[in-house]
Design goal:
By secondary structure, the chain is α+β, with helices and mostly antiparallel strands. It has ten helices and 18 strands. It has helices at about 45-65, 70-80, 175-185, 190-205, 240-250, 260-270, 300-315, 320-325, 330-340, 365-380; strands at about 5-15, 25-30, 35-40, 95-100, 105-110, 115-120, 120-125, 130-135, 135-145, 150-155, 215-220, 225-230, 250-255, 275, 285-290, 295, 340-345, 385-390. The strands form four sheets. A six-stranded antiparallel sheet has the order 2-3-4-5-9-8. A five-stranded antiparallel sheet has the order 1-11-10-6-7. Strands 16-13-12-17-18 form a five-stranded parallel sheet, sandwiched between helices. The longest helix is centred in the first third of the chain and has 19 residues, at about 45-65.
């Protein structure tokens, strides 16, 4: 087994004037190393398109994850979904990316723009085999994965962007591929790549999209462990054991909280050097300890990280705020969202006397909830999470 994993991110914008998106992305994990990703584009837009694409993606991803052949998936969709009285067609178009054991990619495409694959920062012309299933032309491809391979799946709202506004014939797939090729070289996450692509489509539409527009990006990368220490242990005698376990783990080390950083510094026999530079008014400044990758304040900084995490999982509108700044919350966000794949939390259950001030809206339960909330967000990003309490 290799040490590769799939970083998956997507973003959609609705047809102008519509409440619901007619595109739908579904991700189903078969096991730790195999994943089925389906991007379905329902016919038309609005409620009907949303129902068609949601059902299509749910049916295909569930059946594929159960190991059923694509012929059976397509015939099941044709038999299950209602036929459109206007177009006489039963279901939406779809793109399937099946990552098998983080070693092989199986790409299955019906009537969506063909998946763009970028390998070694160049466009990769992968092999395609044409199949006919129930009168539908389906393209299938199977090839070995390499580190840093990037897959870009699109709904047809992407190549239609700018049609008759910026471009006579829309934003051609070849031009989108060149645009993505330049972005991939920047080392962005799958989520940020999909966000930048869809934001550019929105701009080309004059911010009034003429079609539902979705991009789903899959980035193949090496596993990267990360360790985060948050709060002192409830029993002082456990401090050395907690620190030994934390610092013995492979990967980068983040220490959050004033008392926690004092304990870590004592364990390492190094001083805490505080910074008085306020990068932003709502996040306390960071500190440094030799042997620790990042030292930040605790609860306030973590609260900001959770705000960024929730936005990252949604519209990802705040990514420019944390992507370039040097405050504690931005630095933690970059490490956890962009770099880490496996995150180990070491959480101390000690009650901080400073948090007992009735004027402060912080208590022990809030601290524990922060860890639960952040862990849940990171799991949704596809990270492997392990939480140890002391």
């Amino acid at each position: 087994m290799n040490d590769l994993c799939a970083d998956i991110g997507y973003k959609s914008i609705n047809h102008y004037g519509e409440e619901l998106c007619g595109d739908h992305v579904d991700i189903v994990e078969e096991n730790e190393n195999s994943t089925v990703i389906v991007l379905a584009d329902g016919l038309g837009s609005g409620v009907k398109a949303s129902i068609l694409s949601t059902l299509t993606s749910k049916i295909i991803s569930t059946m594929m994850a159960a190991g059923l052949p694509i012929e059976e998936c397509v015939s099941t969709i044709a038999a299950t979904l209602p036929v459109c009285s206007v177009r006489g067609v039963a279901y939406s178009t779809f793109t399937i990316i099946h990552i098998i054991n983080n070693e092989t990619a199986e790409v299955i495409q019906y009537d969506n723009p063909h998946v763009i694959v970028i390998r070694d920062y160049e466009q990769y012309d992968y092999p395609k085999t044409e199949m006919n299933i129930g009168g539908k032309k389906i393209f299938t491809s199977t090839f070995k994965l390499q580190e840093n391979d990037v897959f870009v799946a699109l709904s047809d709202g992407c190549p239609h962007a700018g049609l008759g506004i910026t471009y006579n014939f829309g934003w051609r797939r070849e031009e989108i591929a060149e645009y993505m090729q330049a972005l991939v070289a920047g080392g962005y996450t799958a989520k940020n790549l999909s966000t930048m692509l869809v934001d550019e489509c929105d701009r080309l539409y004059g911010f009034r999209p003429g079609d539902d527009t979705t991009a789903c990006v899959v980035k193949i990368r090496k596993r990267e462990p990360m360790n985060i220490l948050f709060g002192p242990p409830s029993n002082r005698d456990d401090a050395n054991r907690m620190m030994s376990l934390f610092f013995s783990k492979e990967g980068k080390h983040i220490v959050c909280g004033g008392t926690t950083s004092s304990i870590a510094a004592k364990f390492l026999g190094k001083p805490v050097k505080a910074s008085l530079e306020f990068e932003r008014s709502d996040v306390p400044p960071i500190a440094t300890i030799e042997g620790v990758d990042l030292v930040t304040e605790g609860v306030i900084t973590m609260n900001k990280v959770i705000q960024y995490a929730k936005d990252y999982l949604g519209d990802n509108e705040l990514y420019e705020q944390w992507n370039f700044k040097r405050d504690g919350a931005s630095l933690i966000s970059r490490l956890l969202f962009e770099e880490a794949t496996d995150i180990n939390f070491y959480v101390g259950r000690a009650v901080n006397p400073a948090h007992q001030n009735p004027d402060l809206p912080i208590n022990f339960n809030i601290k524990m909830n922060l860890v639960d909330e952040l862990s849940a967000c990171l799991k949704k990003m596809g990270k492997r999470i392990k939480v140890s309490y002391f």
